[in-house]
Design goal:
The chain contains six helices and six strands; from the N terminus they run H-H-E-H-E-E-H-E-H-E-H-E. The protein has 145 residues and is an alpha/beta fold. Helix 5 links the parallel strand 4 and strand 5.
């Protein structure tokens, strides 16, 4: 297990080093989990609360729905609160299959965020990978869903 964690962490550091250099990139679910647990990335789930209620949230993730009840301003306020106002803070976004997280990542980069990563395999999996659920990565019950 330690060897796997070190390997995953090493891959994460290599990947994010390349990805963060230009502010774009993707990160796998295991890399996002390791980084969130280490505190080197803010993991944000952009799904709706009912989706979090159905599957649980990725362990270490903060739920900020893409379709925020207060619109884009509410989403941005909540995200900036998580990053303490730091638009250079590393952020990894996850959704069900990577579509919404990719759209939010693009919008955040256009809004001046510099270190945005997309967990493109999502929770349920996509062509980018099997996803958080099939990888059997840890989940937590959504506290606000």
């Amino acid at each position: 297990m330690t060897r796997l964690l070190l390997s995953t962490l090493s891959a994460f550091l290599w990947l994010t080093g390349a990805a963060l250099a230009d502010g774009t990139g993707r990160i796998s679910a295991p890399e996002a989990y390791a980084a969130a647990k280490q505190g080197s990335v803010v993991l944000v789930d952009v799904r709706q609360p009912e989706e979090g209620r159905q599957t649980g949230l990725a362990d270490g993730a903060h739920l900020i729905p893409m379709r925020h009840p207060e619109g884009g301003a509410g989403f941005m306020r909540d995200l900036l609160a998580l990053t303490k106002g730091d638009k250079d803070a590393p952020i990894a976004l996850v959704c069900r299959t990577g579509s919404r997280s990719a759209a939010v990542a693009k919008a955040l980069r256009e809004s001046g965020f510099t270190h945005v990563l997309d967990v493109s395999e999502g929770m349920a999996g996509s062509s980018a990978g099997p996803g958080w659920l099939k990888r059997e990565l840890p989940l937590v019950r959504c506290p606000v869903c």
